[in-house]
Amino acid sequence: MMMRRLRKKTVYFLWLLIIVFVAFIFVGWGMQDFSTRKISKRDQGIIAEVNKEPITFKAYSDLMEYYVKNGQSRSEAGKNAFNKLVEDVLINNAIQKKKINITDENIVEFIKTNPPPQLLGDTSLQTNGQFDYNKYLSVIGNPSNLEWLKSYEEVLRTQLPRQVIYQMIVGTVRPTTLDFMEEFLQRRTKLKVEYVKSEPEVSPFEIQNYYDKNKDIFAKESKLLVKYVMFPITISVDDEMDSKSEAEEILNLALQGTPLDTIAGTHNCVLLPEKPENSGIVKKDKGWYISVKKDSVVGTLLLPINPSTETIGKVEETAESFVEEAKSDFEGTARAYKMTVKTSRIDEAPINEIDLSYLETKKKPILIGPIEGDNAFYVVMTVGMSEKYIPKFNDITDKVKYKYLSINSPILFKQGFKDFVKAKGLTVISPETFDFYSSPEGPDFFMQAVNIPKDTTMYVVVKGISYIVHSLDRIQPIADSIKNEMPQFYSIWSEEEGKKIFTEWVNRQKETAKIQDFRYKTY
C-alpha cells in the first residue's frame, strides 16, 4: 500500500518535472528569440547612416531645434538639419581619406596668431584704438583662462581640418581672369532705368502655342512616386480660447509698463510697426493683434494662434491608428477613414514639404509614417519611379507664361515703354543711378537689369514680382576706379566662387555616397 502511494507520488513528481522542463525550453527559446531579434536603427537612436557612419537622433534633434529657434518651419528645419549632418560626415570622411592631421603645435601657433573674432573688438585688448597682440598673448598665458583656452582648442580641432580640406577642394578649380573681369565690370557697372511693377498682357492662345512648340524644355526627370493621405492639424476652439487668454495677459503686462520688445521675446509674438489709436485686442486671420497705447508704451504685437501640443497629439494618434490598419490595405483603410488618396512625385507640393529624397527606390513598396509636416501628418506608400514626363499646360501655365514673356519682350514692347505705360495708366518708378550693391529692388533685380541692352524694354521676374524694365543708360567703371577697387573686389569674389566650388563638390559626394535614412517608420 505504502509502495503504491509512493509510486503514485513519484509519477506526479515526474510529470511536474516534465512540465517544468518543457516550460523552461519554451522560455529559453523565447529568450533566445528575444536576444537575437534585431533592434531597429531608430530604436538605437540612429536616424541615418552615411557610408556606414551613424548620425544620432540627438545630433539631429538638437540641430533641428536650433534652426526652428532661428525662424525656420519644422519641416524646413528637419531637411536642413539632416542635410547639414550628412555633409559633415562626408567632409569628415574626406579629411580622414586625405590624412589631414592637426598637431598640437599647429593649434598652439594658430591660437597665438589668430585671436577669436569676439576678442578683436575688446577695448581692454587695444592700444591707441588698435588690437594689441602683446596684451592678447598675456591673456592666453594667464592660467586662470585655461578653461576658455580648452574650449577654443576644441573648436579649432574641428574647424581647422575643415578649412584645410576646403582650401584643397577650392584650389583644384580656379576661375579664369576673364571670369573675374566680367564679374567685376558687371557689378561695378551703374544702371539708369525706369520700370513698372506689372506684366504685359498676352493672350492664352499665344502662351498655349508657345508651350505646344517647346514642350521639351518643360520636361521633368524621373522621381520617386508615392501615394499619400494627409491628416490636417487644425486649430481647435480650446486653442483659440487659450491664445485669447494669453493675448489678454500680454495686454495687461503692456499696460503695466512692460516694454513691448521684452514681451515679444518672452511670449513668442511679433512686434509690428503699427502705432494704434487706443489699447485692445482683435482677432484677424490666424492671430491676435494686441494694440497698446498708454504713456510711453505705444505699439502693436501680433500673437499667432497655433495648435496646442494636445491638438497635435490627437491628430498624430489618429494617423498612427491609420498606419496600423493600412499595413494590410492602404487604399481600403483610406476609404474606411473617408480620406482621399493622392498620387504625386516627391518633388511636388504639398508632399515636397517632407524630405523623402533619401528613400530606397529599388525595394518593394513600403508604408511610411506618420510624418509630421508643418500643418499636417502624412502617411505615405511608395509606388515606384515616375517616368520622365512633360507636365500638362494647365499645371505650369505661369511658368510657361514667364518663359514666353522673357524671350519675347523686345517684340512685345516694340511700341516703346512710354506708350505702353501711358496706355495702361501705370506708375513709373525712376530711381537714381544704381549698381549691384545699391539696387532699389535688390541684387537679383540688378543682375537681370544689367543684361538689358540700352534703349530696350524687357520683362523680368524677381522673387515672384513682375517688372517691366526700360534700360536708359549703362555706365562702365572708369580706369582709376578699376585700379583702386579691384584688389578688394577680388578678395570678396574669390570667397564667393570658393563657396560655390565647395558646394558643388559636396553635392557630388552626396550623389555617390550610400545614404540610409531611418527618420521615418517604414513597414
The 3D shape can be described as globular
Q: How many DSSP-defined strands?
A: 16
Strand order of the largest sheet: 11-6-13-12
Secondary-structure class? alpha+beta
What structural keywords apply?
523 residues; alpha+beta; four-stranded antiparallel sheet; 16 strands; 18% strand; disordered N terminus
Topology, pairings included?
Blueprint: H1 2-36, E1 46-50, E2 53-56, H2 57-69, H3 74-97, H4 104-113, H5 117-120, E3 126-127, E4 130-131, H6 133-140, H7 146-171, H8 177-188, E5 190-196, H9 204-213, E6 224-232, H10 237-255, H11 260-266, E7 270-272, E8 280-284, E9 287-294, E10 297-304, H12 309-326, H13 330-336, E11 342-345, E12 367-372, E13 376-385, H14 397-412, H15 417-424, H16 443-449, E14 457-462, E15 465-475, H17 479-512, E16 515-517
Antiparallel strand pairs: 1-2, 1-16, 3-4, 5-15, 6-11, 6-13, 7-10, 8-9, 9-10, 12-13, 14-15
Helix pairs in contact: 2-3, 3-7, 7-17, 8-17, 9-14, 12-13
Describe the protein in words.
With 523 residues, this protein is an alpha+beta fold. Among the domains are: 104-171; 190-216 and 393-475; 222-233 and 312-385; 237-306, no CATH class. 49% of the residues lie in helices and 18% in strands. The chain has helices at residues 2-36, 57-69, 74-97, 104-113, 117-120, 133-140, 146-171, 177-188, 204-213, 237-255, 260-266, 309-326, 330-336, 397-412, 417-424, 443-449, 479-512; strands spanning 46-50, 53-56, 126-127, 130-131, 190-196, 224-232, 270-272, 280-284, 287-294, 297-304, 342-345, 367-372, 376-385, 457-462, 465-475, 515-517. The strands form 5 sheets. The protein has a 4-stranded antiparallel sheet, covered by helices on one side. Strands 7-10-9-8 form a 4-stranded antiparallel sheet. A 3-stranded antiparallel sheet has the order 2-1-16. A hairpin with a 2-residue loop joins strand 1 (46-50) and strand 2 (53-56). The longest helix has 35 residues, at 2-36. It starts with a helix and ends in a 6-residue tail after the last strand. Mean pLDDT is 84; it is low at 1-36.
